[in-house]
Write a structure and sequence with these properties.
Blueprint: H1 9-19, H2 29-36, E1 58-63, H3 71-74, E2 77-81, E3 101-105, H4 112-123, E4 126-131, H5 134-146, E5 151-153, E6 168-172, H6 176-183, E7 193-198, H7 200-209, H8 217-230, E8 233-238, H9 243-250
Parallel strand pairs: 1-2, 1-3, 3-8, 4-6, 4-7, 5-6, 7-8
Helix pairs in contact: 1-2
């Protein structure tokens, strides 16, 4: 929940309106009402709920739970789905809907990786997947291969020899410089890739607080923000999304 637990979202909205009268906040109240409309008495989403999009590059996909977000970021929620699995069409970029950065809050088992792989196949793109731990790198490499995507790990000696846009790349955050150096040979290279950051809350926590990055924190952060700004689409996902993750994306 955003703050205290409310049994009815109307009660929450009324309470919030009374306690948040600062300039610039009240204008978001109608958007919040739209974002929360369609929930049952326990705050569970019962249908897909479109809201008025702001002029930005980020689309928030709200899946089942209420965000731990401030009023400004709550107003950016574009849809609330109560489906069994995430669908790849949620990440579609078009002239009518130019959003290319997608933030997904979704629990384990809702098909985050599968939906991203399907999106890559539909768009004829490869994936760059970055993780905090090697075990997740291995998991993604196996999942991509299972779906028929040629995939190269960051520790593969042939990484620098692959043809840009012909194979997906999986890497740890610590080795992100290898990936970025590989792509920066041509400014258009990143457009051939979809950036996928699973467990994004853990990724941001790792970058900001990890002792292993004590001498490289700025460069790693800069490399990740370069990827966010330049890849074809960006999909970040976790079962908890906070204002910290939203601020990290907005700063790219």
């Amino acid at each position: 929940m955003v703050a205290d637990v409310y049994s009815d979202h109307t009660e929450w909205l009324q309470t919030f309106t009374q306690t948040n009268k600062d300039a610039g906040v009240e204008s978001c109240i109608s958007n919040v009402s739209n974002a929360l409309d369609g929930h049952d008495d326990h705050g569970n989403a019962i249908d897909t709920i479109p809201t008025k999009k702001k002029e930005n590059i980020t689309e928030v996909i709200h899946f089942l739970q209420l965000f731990i977000l401030n009023i400004i970021n709550i107003a950016r929620i574009s849809c609330c789905d109560k489906l069994q699995y995430l669908m790849s069409h949620s990440y579609k970029v078009s002239v009518e809907d130019p959003c290319r950065v997608f933030v997904v809050e979704s629990c384990t088992g809702t098909g985050k990786t599968t939906s991203v792989v399907n999106h890559a196949v539909e768009e004829n793109k490869c994936i760059i997947s970055l993780s905090c731990v090697k075990s997740q790198v291995t998991t993604h490499a196996l999942e991509f291969a299972k779906k028929g995507l040629p995939t190269v790990r960051y520790d593969n000696r042939s990484l620098h020899k692959i043809e840009i846009g012909k194979a997906s790349i999986v890497s740890t955050i610590d080795s992100i410089s290898k990936v970025v150096a590989f792509l920066k040979r041509d400014p258009q290279n990143a457009l051939k890739y979809i950036l996928f950051l699973d467990e994004f809350h853990s990724v941001t926590q790792y970058i900001i607080f990890s002792s292993t990055l004590v001498t490289r924190r700025r460069s790693v952060m800069a490399d990740l923000q370069w990827l966010i700004a330049n890849c074809y689409t960006v999909i970040v996902a976790d079962n908890v999304i906070t204002d910290l993750e939203m601020a990290f994306i907005d700063s790219a």
